[in-house]
Design goal:
By secondary structure, this protein is α+β, with helices and mostly antiparallel strands. The chain has 6 helices and 12 strands. The protein has a single domain, classed as Lipid/polyisoprenoid-binding, YceI-like (Lipocalin), CATH 2.40.128.110. Helix content is 19%, strand content 33%. A 12-stranded antiparallel sheet has the order 6-3-2-11-10-9-8-7-5-4-1-12. It is globular and about 50 Å long.
Length: 281
């Protein structure tokens, strides 16, 4: 089995630990004092200091400014993807297949795992954000994913592409009736039914996506960066019109002009195992 260095695990836990539904809660926006770097509850805020390489976030001896940069960079999909590859090399070909865990049932740590969504508006303007996990579990038999489910808390959907009042307003809109109507449909789920080896050493997963009580066939690409503990990522896209998410959709309304919002939504999940809950066959 591949063993992740302790420094990497501690760094990953630190970096992803703030990505649960509690951090950046839109009901508790950033205060002016926090933005300006003034003392808050006696703790001095420091300015973020960029690291040269995302993998440096796993290094020991980072300054507080560098740690803040690593923590806040979770908003960047490309940064997360680079982070996933740290310590594992480029995940292509048979090397990725070698990282598939042994037969068993694997439960992901919902506090350390991240789901990031991305959508686009007319003119190419993008919006992005996060959704907290309620649970994530999958079963592997003979090197194949044979079952699994990702369950997320739609009531915790947030926007990270904007800040302050704009983020709060967008989050409230996404939770409203003309988007995901979380009062009636508080969760969404992706059920994994089968998987096969893809063209670049990934696993191509087939299953069903359930949003707003509507279930549709869906596919996703699963990469394993490590097998012990399991560190993986899932990429997928879906058409929101298939799930009756109507606001700004050209599938339901004509002549939207600049108010048109693409029906395609992309999802990226970075998953970190809760090793204590592992059940091997």
């Amino acid at each position: 089995m591949q063993v992740f260095p302790t420094a990497i695990l501690l760094g990953l836990a630190f970096f992803l630990g703030g990505c649960s539904g509690t951090e950046g809660n839109l009901e508790d926006p950033v205060t002016p004092a926090k933005e300006s770097g003034e003392n808050v509850a006696g703790v001095e805020e420091v300015a973020a200091i960029a690291v040269e390489d995302p993998c440096d976030c796993f290094s020991e001896g980072l300054s507080r400014g560098e740690m803040r940069f690593c923590r806040e960079s979770k908003r960047d999909v490309s940064f997360l993807e680079a982070l996933r590859r740290c310590g594992t090399g480029e995940v292509t070909g048979v090397s990725a297949i070698m990282n598939i865990p042994g037969d068993g049932q694997y439960t992901m740590n919902t506090e350390q795992s991240v789901l990031q969504w991305r959508g686009t508006k007319a003119g190419g303007m993008a919006e992005a954000g996060t959704v907290p996990f309620r649970s994530c579990i999958f079963t592997i038999e003979e090197g194949r994913v044979v079952a699994g489910e990702v369950l997320v808390e739609m009531s915790g959907i947030q926007a990270t592409s904007v800040e302050g009042l704009a983020a709060r307003n967008l989050g409230q809109h996404l939770r409203g009736e003309d988007f995901f109507d979380v009062a009636q449909f508080p969760t969404a789920a992706f059920s994994m039914e089968s998987g096969k080896v893809g063209s670049r050493g990934s696993l191509e997963i087939e299953g069903k996506l359930n949003i707003k009580g509507i279930s549709k066939p869906a596919s996703a690409t699963l990469y394993f960066g490590s097998s012990d503990p399991v560190v993986a990522s899932i990429d997928m896209t879906f058409n929101r019109a298939d799930f009756d998410v109507r606001y700004g959709s050209g599938s339901f309304f004509d002549n939207l002009g600049d108010d048109l919002i693409s029906d395609e939504v992309s999802l990226k999940m970075v998953l970190v195992e809760d090793v204590a809950k592992r059940k091997l066959n």
